[in-house]
From TrEMBL:
Keywords: Cytoplasm, DNA damage, Nucleus. The gene is HUS1. Belongs to the HUS1 family. It is found in: Cytoplasm, Cytosol; Nucleus. Component of the toroidal 9-1-1 (RAD9-RAD1-HUS1) complex, composed of RAD9A, RAD1 and HUS1. The 9-1-1 complex associates with LIG1, POLB, FEN1, RAD17, HDAC1, RPA1 and RPA2. The 9-1-1 complex associates with the RAD17-RFC complex. HUS1 interacts with POLB, HDAC1, FEN1, PCNA and RAD9B. HUS1 does not interact with RAD17. Interacts with DNAJC7. Component of the 9-1-1 cell-cycle checkpoint response complex that plays a major role in DNA repair. The 9-1-1 complex is recruited to DNA lesion upon damage by the RAD17-replication factor C (RFC) clamp loader complex. Acts then as a sliding clamp platform on DNA for several proteins involved in long-patch base excision repair (LP-BER). GO terms for biological process: DNA damage checkpoint signaling; DNA repair; response to radiation. This is Checkpoint protein. It comes from Bos taurus (Bovine). Gene3D superfamilies: 3.70.10.10. Transmembrane segments: none annotated. It holds the Pfam family Hus1. One of its GO terms (cellular component) is checkpoint clamp complex.
Length: 256
């Protein structure tokens, strides 16, 4: 197995860092799936036990200037790694204003993701900061438990309001209740509601618009949607516009 990749674009590096930070807030460990054209971050906790299931997909050509990998075999050209989410997030925090970032699968007495960050110094010369993140290689027989979840077709599809506004509302609501009720209809109306024994608070958004349901899941993905229901913990990616299809679901799906 081999894997190495490089990011040189600042915007791509910042976006990759935000994705890593979001995942670190959701779970202690995650699975990184590496394939020839995509990276996937996967969480597969049991929702019934209060966990979060997530499928985060990154098109490698949108992030990396260099990308090389060889999977476990020619027939199964993929790599599955288990890692501590916070370790990757902490390593990427040192990449602010970096000239380049390199990620490589290495073996230093144990499997590692080696993250090398090229930084500029005051004298305009560069220095390299290296982080070795321990990983566990997941055997082929366990891959079947880490596949993309099947999400049913939505009953309602709605454009969401400005993300910063919505995030501000939800962060205030979570100080009152651990559970958030999301309501939407085909008239472009969205309600965020919390209910406790002492208080009921609802925030109303109107005239949001409804993407045609017939366009399906692929169209919603192209609009960079993010759906999260995880017992009051909410994290939002910084994207310009997004839409969401609502149905009884407990998955976080992010494609970019």
């Amino acid at each position: 197995m081999k894997f190495r990749a490089k990011i040189v674009d600042t915007a791509c590096l910042n976006h990759f860092t935000r994705v890593s930070n979001m995942i670190a807030k959701l779970a202690k460990t995650c699975t990184l799936r590496i394939s020839p054209d995509k990276l996937n971050f996967i969480l597969s906790d049991r929702v019934a036990n209060g966990g979060v299931s997530m499928w985060c997909e990154l098109e490698q050509e949108n992030f990396f200037s260099e990308f090389q990998m060889e999977g476990v075999s020619a027939e199964n050209n993929e790599i599955y790694l288990e890692l501590t989410s916070e370790n990757l997030s902490r390593a990427l925090k040192t990449a602010q204003n970096a000239r380049a970032l390199k990620i490589k699968l290495t073996n230093k007495h144990f499997p590692c993701l080696t993250v090398s960050i090229e930084l500029l110094s005051v004298s305009s010369s560069s220095r390299v900061v290296t982080h070795d993140i321990p990983v566990k290689v997941i055997p082929r027989k366990l891959w079947k438990d880490l596949q993309e979840p099947t999400v049913p077709d939505a009953d309602v599809s709605i454009y969401l309001p400005v993300l910063k506004t919505m995030k501000s509302v939800v962060e205030k609501m979570k100080n009152i209740s651990n559970h958030l009720i999301i309501e939407a209809n085909l008239n472009g109306e969205l309600n965020l509601k919390i209910e406790t024994e002492l208080v009921c608070v609802t925030t109303h958004f109107k005239d949001l618009g409804n993407p045609p349901l017939g366009l399906g899941r692929e169209h919603i993905m192209e609009l960079s949607h993010l759906l999260l229901h995880c017992g009051g913990k909410v994290n939002l990616l910084d994207v310009r516009s997004w839409s969401v299809g609502l149905r009884a679901s407990s998955f976080l799906i992010c494609k970019t």
